[in-house]
Amino acid sequence: xxxxRAGPAPPxxxxxCTPGGGALGPNGIFYNLYSRSGLLIGGEGIISAHRVSDGSxxxxxxxxxxxxxxxxxxxxxxxxxxxxxxxxxxxTILPLMPEKAEEAFVANxxxxxxxxxxxxxxxTGDVLW
Length: 129
Prior knowledge:
By secondary structure, this protein is mainly β. 9% of the residues lie in helices and 33% in strands. It has one helix and seven strands, in the order E-E-E-E-E-E-H-E. Strand 5 (72-75) and strand 6 (82-89) form a beta hairpin. The longest helix is centred in the last third of the chain and has 12 residues, at 99-110.
């Protein structure tokens, strides 16, 4: 039985999003990280926090890099704040061509892959670091 559904409408025809993911925190909040960019690199990520009991959106934040991985939720130290750690950045690419040709393609066309980790306050979505 479906209790609730949340999130944006499905992408337009022939569009796709990244393989993001979600994590349930000990506070009963589900954190969902994804990107709606159809590109292999670049774009922005979106993180949202939904109360599991009723699906209500608590907060949503656009991030400067794509979200294609699962977030992690936990405390910073024994008495620390509950945080959401976000792995953001470009996805790796499946081998598309012979190794040397692919190295040249990545170096000359795509450029270096960029990745970063952000940590947000789990209650507010404010960036901590």
